């Protein structure tokens, strides 16, 4: 995964998320929407073949947090949830 910044302003961040597709992009988008300070979060895949693994994100906040802070929080939530699933899975198979 690689992040390529396209545009950065006070409450706006546009970037490519190289190496990912709809699976992770949609998850990140949904978790960003959980943040009450995120006023807009969305992504597109500009060409279904040539750019299939390079979603373009746009994140806008209300100014109480930066888009970068919102992304860090979203990434941490995703990590924590994945860890909880892994722990539940281990518990289920170990009995």
Explain what this protein looks like in three dimensions.
This protein is an alpha+beta fold. The protein is built from two helices and four strands, in the order E-E-H-E-E-H. It has a single domain (2-94), classed as RNA polymerase, RBP11-like subunit (Gyrase A, domain 2, 2-Layer Sandwich), CATH 3.30.1360. The protein has helices at 22-33, 67-94; strands at 2-9, 12-18, 38-44, 56-61. Helix 1 (22-33) packs across helix 2. 20% of the residues are buried.
Name given to the CATH architecture: 2-Layer Sandwich
Q: Total strand count, please?
A: 4
Please, how many helices?
2
Shape: flat
The overall number of domains is: 1
Distance between the termini: 35 Å
Classify the helix fraction into a percent range: 40-55%
Q: Tell me the CATH topology.
A: Gyrase A, domain 2
Question: Which structural class matches the secondary elements?
Answer: alpha+beta
Going across the biggest sheet, name each strand in turn: 1-2-4-3
Per CATH, the superfamily is RNA polymerase, RBP11-like subunit
Gyration radius, rounded: 15 Å
Mean pLDDT: 95
From N to C, what is the helix and strand string?
A: EEHEEH
Instruction: Enumerate the spans where pLDDT stays under 50 for 5 or more consecutive residues.
Output: none
Largest sheet: 4 strands, antiparallel
Q: How much beta, percentage-wise?
A: 25-35%
CATH level 1 name: Alpha Beta
């Amino acid at each position: 995964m690689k992040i390529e910044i396209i545009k950065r302003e006070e409450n706006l961040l546009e970037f490519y998320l190289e190496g990912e597709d709809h699976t992770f992009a949609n998850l990140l988008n949904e978790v960003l929407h959980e943040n009450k300070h995120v006023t807009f979060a969305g992504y597109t895949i500009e060409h279904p073949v040539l750019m299939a693994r390079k979603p373009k994100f746009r994140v806008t906040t209300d100014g109480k947090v930066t888009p970068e802070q919102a992304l860090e929080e979203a990434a941490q939530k995703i990590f924590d949830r994945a860890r909880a699933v892994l722990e539940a899975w281990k518990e289920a198979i170990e009995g």
